[in-house]
Specification:
Layout lengths: L9 E6 L4 H11 L8 E4 L13 H6 L2 E4 L4 E3 L1 H8 L6 H6 L5 H28 L1
Parallel strand pairs: 1-2
Antiparallel strand pairs: 1-3, 3-4
Length: about 130
């Protein structure tokens, strides 16, 4: 797994804009001043400029970022990478550098992905209320 440090500035964030939970989280990030410009790409809308080597389905299943050097990160590494660039989130990114923490975060994220559809249903109902 790559080191998601701020030295590899994030240029693109790929997120599922059809997910109400994801939209809320991304909105929170977008309202913060990042160290570097970030392009927010909603992959729920078919795009012609998706990163090479990854499918639309893969982007919909997991959170991804692309570094300024072109490296594609996903899952916990992608979250840590973006956190490292956002005020208020850098401490979490620093904690993820402790040996074993990123591994644990990735396992937790994979568990979350299993229950994500149920959580999405709850948030969709909240949006309708």
């Amino acid at each position: 797994m790559s080191d998601p440090t701020p030295t590899n500035a994030c240029t693109e964030v790929y997120f599922d804009g059809s997910c109400p939970l994801c939209r809320r989280e991304i909105s929170l990030y977008q309202n913060l001043k990042s160290d570097q410009p970030i392009e927010w790409v909603d992959v729920s809308v078919e795009q012609s400029s998706l990163p090479a080597g990854v499918t639309h389905a893969q982007l919909m299943k997991r959170f991804h970022t692309r570094t300024a050097q072109g490296e594609l990160l996903s899952g916990a590494a992608a979250f840590v990478h973006i956190w490292a660039q956002l005020p208020g989130w850098r401490l979490l990114a620093s904690l993820a550098r402790i040996p074993g923490v990123l591994w644990l975060m990735e396992r937790t994220y994979r568990g979350f992905l299993v229950i994500r559809p149920s959580i999405q249903r709850v948030f969709r109902k909240l949006d309708q209320a």
